[in-house]
Design goal:
Elements (H helix, E strand, L loop, with lengths): L2 E5 L5 H13 L2 E4 L8 H13 L18 E9 L2 E2 L1 H8 L6 E8 L7 H9 L4 E9 H14 L1
Parallel strand pairs: 1-2, 1-3, 3-5, 5-6
Antiparallel strand pairs: 3-4
Length: 150
Amino acid sequence: MNTLVLFYSLTGRTHYEAKRIAQECGGELYEVREQRRRSLLSAYLFGPRQARKRTYVYVEPIAVRMEEYDRIIILSPIWGGRPAPAFNTIVSELPAGREVEIVLTSDTGRVKDREGIVARTERMGVTVTDFRVIKTEDLKKRDRRRRRAK
């Protein structure tokens, strides 16, 4: 099964997890970037409101043919309890008939409207096979333990 790991990351934590998942499943890794680079200040001030409103943002053209993959794994950080706005744009460009896994990253591990996120994604004609939230704080602790063990 061909797997594509699509991710959006502002601080690098989601990138780290996407890289790990791509290595585990042997999938191709692809980073989605916003056309207008967002500063951390802008992300903290305006990002949560945009995420709550399920705003779409302009992203750089996705230069990978998603139709060629059977399974697509989407990773995004959680802002204000919902996926970052780039997630909405990624979902809107999904080809129909694919299996999709949603992986969200957050320091708190909390997400609002889990069922709504899955329902909006499935409206694009895809099947959501997995939905999980990864606490990035746990990733930091795991890495510290690995470094100490070396």
